[in-house]
Amino acid sequence: MSDALINGLAGAGGGIIAQLITYPLSTVNTRQQTERDPKRETSSQGALERMCQVVKEEGWERLYGGLMPSLVGTAASQGVYYYFYQIFRNMAEAAALQKKKMGVSDGSVGMLSSLLTAALSGCVNVLLTNPIWVVVTRMQAHRKESNHAPDQGLLVATEQETISAVEPLPYGTSRVIQEIFDEAGIRGFWKGVLPSLIMVSNPSIQFMLYEAMLSKLRKRRNSNRVTALEIFFLGALAKLGATVVTYPLLVVKARLQARQDKTGDRRHHYKGSTRDAIIKMIRYEGLDGFYKGMGTKIVQSVLAAAVIFTMKEELVRGVHFLLARQAAKTVKLKPV
C-alpha cells in the first residue's frame, strides 16, 4: 500500500470523526453566514444561544441537516486532499533531495514548496467535490417553520426566503439536487467554485504553518517522535491562523451556494457571480457582513482540524505498524 493511499484513507477517516463531533457548530455557522439582514437579532447571537434556538424552534434533527452528504463530502474531500498532498509532497521532497546532491540546498522542503503543494492539492479537491458542498450548504441553511409559529402551511427554505406554498416532501438530498439542477442546470453544482478555489489558500496556509511548526519542534527535540497531544495543538494553531485570514471568502461562498431569495429584495438576491455578492454585501451590510459567525467558525474549524490532524497521524502510524508487523511475519514464515 502506497504512502499516498494510506494518507488519503487516514485523512478521510479523521475527517469523518471530526465532522461527527463538530457538525452542529457547522450548521449554526452556515446559518450565521447566510443571514443577510443586519437588523435581525439572530445575526448577533452566539453559537450556543443560536444552537438552543434551533433545537427549541425546529428540533434536534435540524442541527444535523445534511449530515449524510456532508460525511460523504468530508470523506471525499479529505481523502482526495491527503492523497494528492502526499503525491505532491513526495515530488517536492525528491526535488529537494536532488538539489542537496547538487549542493544548492540542505535537502529540506521549503515553505514556498509546502505552500504550493497544499495549493495544488486543494485545487484538485475543490474541482472534484464542490457539488457535494453546494448540496450540504443548502441543507444546513434550510430552516423549517417553528412548531410554535402560526399554522400557515409554510416551510422556510433558508433564513432569507419564505416559500408561500405547502412543501410536503422532506428537504432531503435528492430534492436538493433536483432543486439545484432546476435553477441553474449542471453549472449550479459549481456555484461558489471561484471563492472556493481562492479559499485553497486556507488549507495551504494551514499546512504551511503546521509543517513549519512541526519541523521546528522536531529539530528542537532532535527526534521525529511527536505525541498526539502535540499534533492536536499544532493543528489547532495552524487552522486558527488560516481561518482568521480567509474567513470573508468563506462567507461569500456560503452566500452563493445557499438558495437565493426571490422576493424582489435586491439585498437578498445574487446573480451568481462572486463580484456581485461582494458588492452587495459591502453596500447593504458593510464590512461586518464578511465576518458573520467567525467566532463559531473558529471554534468549529480549529477543533475539527485538531481532531483531523491527530486522528490522521494516529491512523497512519497504526497502518504502518500493522504493515511492518505483517511483513515481519511473512519473512519469519518464509522458508530458508
TrEMBL record:
<keyword id="KW-0472">Membrane</keyword>
<dbReference type="GO" id="GO:0016020">
    <property type="term" value="C:membrane"/>
</dbReference>
<feature type="transmembrane region" description="Helical">
    <location>
        <begin position="231"/>
        <end position="250"/>
    </location>
</feature>
<dbReference type="GO" id="GO:0006862">
    <property type="term" value="P:nucleotide transport"/>
</dbReference>
<dbReference type="InterPro" id="IPR023395">
    <property type="entry name" value="MCP_dom_sf"/>
</dbReference>
<dbReference type="InterPro" id="IPR044712">
    <property type="entry name" value="SLC25A32-like"/>
</dbReference>
<feature type="compositionally biased region" description="Basic and acidic residues">
    <location>
        <begin position="33"/>
        <end position="42"/>
    </location>
</feature>
<feature type="repeat" description="Solcar">
    <location>
        <begin position="2"/>
        <end position="91"/>
    </location>
</feature>
<keyword id="KW-1133">Transmembrane helix</keyword>
<dbReference type="Pfam" id="PF00153">
    <property type="entry name" value="Mito_carr"/>
</dbReference>
<feature type="repeat" description="Solcar">
    <location>
        <begin position="226"/>
        <end position="318"/>
    </location>
</feature>
<feature type="repeat" description="Solcar">
    <location>
        <begin position="109"/>
        <end position="216"/>
    </location>
</feature>
<keyword id="KW-0813">Transport</keyword>
<feature type="region of interest" description="Disordered">
    <location>
        <begin position="29"/>
        <end position="48"/>
    </location>
</feature>
<feature type="transmembrane region" description="Helical">
    <location>
        <begin position="109"/>
        <end position="128"/>
    </location>
</feature>
<comment type="similarity">
    <text>Belongs to the mitochondrial carrier (TC 2.A.29) family.</text>
</comment>
<protein>
    <recommendedName>
        <fullName>Peroxisomal nicotinamide adenine dinucleotide carrier</fullName>
    </recommendedName>
</protein>
<keyword id="KW-0677">Repeat</keyword>
<dbReference type="GO" id="GO:0055085">
    <property type="term" value="P:transmembrane transport"/>
</dbReference>
<keyword id="KW-0812">Transmembrane</keyword>
<dbReference type="InterPro" id="IPR018108">
    <property type="entry name" value="MCP_transmembrane"/>
</dbReference>
<feature type="transmembrane region" description="Helical">
    <location>
        <begin position="67"/>
        <end position="88"/>
    </location>
</feature>
